[in-house]
Amino acid sequence: MKDNCEVYCYDEPKVRRVQDAIQQEDITGMAKMFKVLADETRMKIAFALCQEDELCVCDVANIIGSSLATASHHLRSLKQLGLAKYRKEGKLAFYSLEDEHVRLLVQLASTHSKELISYATN
C-alpha cells in the first residue's frame, strides 16, 4: 500500500481555509517553542517544573546533574521564549513555568510518550 496519493486532486475550499488559518497564526513562534522543548535537558527542566511549582537554579542543576552555569543557560532559554518565569529572592533565583498552558504541553507530551511506549510493547 502506498502512503501517498496516486492522483493529484485537492479540495480547494478546504485548502484555502487552512492556508488562511496558518497566516493568522505565529507559526514561527510555535516552532521555536517546540524547538526549545525538543532539547532533552530543557524538557527535563520543564518536566521538573511540572512536579514542583518553583525551583531555584541550584535545585535544577542537581536534578539534571549539571553545573549552575548550564542549568542557568537552559532556564534562560525557557524564559526567553515565554515558557518559564523567574523571581529573585536575595541571592537565589527561582524559576517556575510561565503558565498552565506550558504545564499542559509538557503533561500531554508525557502522556503521549507513555502511550507510544505502551503501543510498542503490545
How does this structure look, described?
By secondary structure, the protein is mainly alpha-helical. The chain has a single domain (12-121), classed as Arc Repressor Mutant, subunit A (Orthogonal Bundle), CATH 1.10.10. It has helices at residues 12-24, 27-37, 40-51, 57-64, 68-80, 100-121, and strands at 55-56, 84-89, 92-97. The protein has a 3-stranded antiparallel β-sheet with strand order 1-3-2. A hairpin with a 2-residue loop joins β2 and β3.
Calculate the mean pLDDT score and round it.
94
- Which class best fits the helix and strand makeup? mainly alpha
Q: Count up the helices.
A: 6
Name the shape in a single word.
Answer: elongated
State the order of secondary-structure elements, H for helix, E for strand. Answer: HHHEHHEEH
SS elements, strand count = 3
Percent helix, as a range, is 55-70%
CATH fold call: Arc Repressor Mutant, subunit A
Largest sheet: 3 strands, antiparallel
CATH architecture: Orthogonal Bundle
The name of the CATH superfamily reads Winged helix-like DNA-binding domain superfamily/Winged helix DNA-binding domain
The termini sit apart by 23 Å
Radius of gyration from CA coordinates: 19 Å
Number of domains: 1
- Beta-strand content estimate: 5-15%
Widest β-sheet, arrangement of strands: 1-3-2
CATH class group: Mainly Alpha
- Poorly predicted runs are none
